Amino acid sequence: MLKLQHRFIFSICLLLGCTTIAVAQPTWTFDPFGKEKKPEKYEEKKLASEKTGEKNFGTVRRIIQNGTSRFNFYFNANNKLNAVIERAKIANKDDYAKLLPFYPYNLDNTASQKTELDSIIYKSTAGILLHDLRSDWVDNFYLLIGKSYFYKKDFDSAALTFQFINYNLFPRKRKNDDDNKIVGTNEEGSGVGSVSIANKEKRSVIKKVLTLAPSRNEALIWQIRTFIEQNQLGDAAGLISILQNDKNLPARLQNDLAEVTAYWFYNQNIYDSAAVHLKKALTNADTKQDKSRWEYLLAQLYENTGQFNEASTYYFKAAQHTTDPVMDIYARLSEAKMMRNSGNNKELDNSIANLLKMARKDRFEEYRDIIYYSIGQLSLQKPDTTNGIGYYLKSIAYNSNTSNYKDRSYLQLGDIAFVQRRYIDAGNFYDSLTVATLEKDFDTKPVEDRKDILSRLVPFLKAIQKEDSLQKLASLPEAERNAILKKMVKKYRKENGLKEEDFGGDNPITFANNKAPEDLFKTNGSSSGEWYFYNASLRSKGFTSFKSKWGKRPNVDNWRRKVAAEASIVNSRNNGNISNNLDPDAKVVDGATKPDAEKKENAFSFESLLDELPLTTEKLAASNKVIANNLYDAAQIFQNEIKDYTEAINSYERFATQFEKNEKIADVYVGLSYCYSKIGDKVKADYYASLVKNNYPGTMASAIINNPASLKSAEKNPTISAKYAAIYDLFLEGNFEKAIAAKKTADSLYGKNYWTPQLLYIEAVYYIKEKKDSNAIAVLQNIEKLYAVSPLKEKATTLISVLQRRAEIEQYLTNLQVTREEEEKVIVGDDKVIPATQVKTVAPKAVEPKTIAPSIVTRAVSDTIKVPEIYKNKSFTLQPEKAHYVVMILDKIDGVYVNEAKNAFTRFNKESMATINIAISKDAVDAQTALLLFTPFENATEALKYFDRIKKAASTEVSWLQPSKYSFIIITESNLKLLKENKDFVGYKQLLNNNYGNKF
């Protein structure tokens, strides 16, 4: 009975709500086919939309039209649109360490669902065409179409649709109103200047229940958002301003207007104003998670504008409301960061305690690496470096390899160790991280610089530690020394599952025992006759026996390797641990010292360790020499590269104390004088300077002390650098005699400080050209001596070896008889004849011509090949499908060095790209600009691949050339001819950059 009453009341309300007369828009008609004819089968058949006005729109017709429009078409289309947005949200991955995007989805993700969006447009169009245009759902269908175009990123069509809704669905108050009334005219009786473009929404309660609100006002909001996406910010601002002052804009859309206004300010990085409007729009969020995400973004906006109290409030709200554990962690971390300026460690302690509670909860198990990393960050703010280090290590231990927090933790640990001058640990931590994973979030150049420096410093420090440990052990009494060695051997072999070594009767660790091993599994081994596994005493005895023989073995695969690795990690952090330093075959892998897996079983034996000790005079002298050399090399890096003058002084002082008779002692005193002057200790700086002047006159050390500017040139003193740079350019340009004379003058003034190894190298190349091999070898030896860590040292060593065998090599080549087939000649470029084997032009594959519809052609190209857009300027035309050279442009370089560059890249191609036959030919634009042509690649894509490799390799392969003296491009044969004529390098590079993302 009750259900029957409800049905009756509902029917009455439906009839009352539908009796409200709505006047259709007679000034426009819907022409679904335009100039196209209907299919012949349906030429005489009218659509329901075409019958609009032929029948009265009474109550019954209204109910039928509205019902089918709503439930057969709008409901499904709207659900599809919501599904598109939901999938885009799922695909979106926010990085809470950065400023969040304004919306929780990316339009690229919505646009990728083109098929679904087209289906929505089709269904909405059908909903209009198949029903009377006086239906209450027509405007809602149009709004769906506009939104679909928007999410397809078809902004022009979206804007036209929203504009259509604005102009054609403007409601009239009375039946006889002027159809041509202009939208936006003054309201009647409201006075001049009161402009309204919104329309009032007066609907009955029943109407509100049974239909959606009119879409015209909402279309104005979407028009603003479309303008913003089109970067038409002026148009968007004008529409925002009008609506903000429009009294007819309904209250339900005030939050929508605040949302797009906040988005307008956000896109212009005006974060304070964006925060004001976003705060008003929070209730506009679709879900609780979307609201918490906006709260997090609002907090970030407040933080960026220095409003830390407001930021803290909204970070707290975001943590309370979010369903995303990662946001929860970051919100708590960011809230704690807002206390950084207050000096309130109590708040930081509370935040750390909260995060530790989270880490203990099961639902946060997979996020423990993030949590502990965050706690480490908070600990450093207190500052509490010791606990911070512990939390970073925990973050690494809990890392699931699905995030880059392991690398972030290694980065923080490396930075801490570097600042604390624990350079070996810093090197291990930096070596353990993958720099590529941090490039998006951090400036990785300082890390790469530190890694480069530490890769050269740490071997020196480890060598010193090893020799110190060996000497310390050698100085012990023999019995104590042997006991330590045997204990080390036993521990090592047990940890690695090797058979125990028999040390003989004097082994203090093993005991003579003639009894046969006891059978623990005999039941008579127990007085009670119990089985082994039921007897606690026997089980305990068995456990002890197993542990004493085999040690601790974790229940994991490859346990031997794992145990050895963990043990060596501990050893590597203990500078005084002898066992680590006694392993000469240890390898550094992932920041930890690991023994070679293929080391023979007898490699770590008592005899091998004993043989390592410097127990004889000769071995002790060799050990001291290793310490001296490494102390000096380490001090040089501390002084000149790290600028850690305290550590440099420690190394120099030890050298001066322990190796006073060493040949490098004068250079050590120079270093001490310089470093003490840097830390402000003038007394000691003058003391060591006087030692050099009085005891080592006439040496290079004395010249440096007498002319301090020569020492400062290591820091690239501007005056000295400018003079040597000019000499460098003279060499490269071929003014050899003038360059030699200028260099002699500069060397006499600045104590033969050669400025850079590049300058020495090109000087040596000049002497080789002049066949002054002895001079060239002397210069190259200076590179080896003065620049031991330079990449050019290896090239210098190789070149010295070749020069010393020059006569032998030339005689061999002279006597060598080679018969070669005559190569086919081809004409390339400006009538130049080169061997055909050097030409690798591959014509693009011919495509059989077919008749294809333009729409299909467009789709095929865009979906498969994605050919870059062709850019043109007044001279050049890019044709990516044609064969391209990779060209090295050398500016003001003498032919000697052009040849040297060609030789360098020839070696590079043979060593690194042996599977590809890449020939190099020389060309020139004029007397000042030389070209190296790396012969043609199939198309621009293949040329770009080689371009990336050779550009990266250039800094190593031609390190003697300054980067300002050369550049690389890719170019077709036709463009090369044109470039040699007009010499418009700037214009051509700009054209390349426009098309290939500023690579050139």
TrEMBL record:
Source organism, top-level taxon: Bacteria
PROSITE patterns documented for this protein: PROKAR_LIPOPROTEIN
Keywords from the named record: Signal
Signal peptide: 1-24
Protein name: Tetratricopeptide repeat protein
Lineage: Bacteria, Pseudomonadati, Bacteroidota, Chitinophagia, Chitinophagales
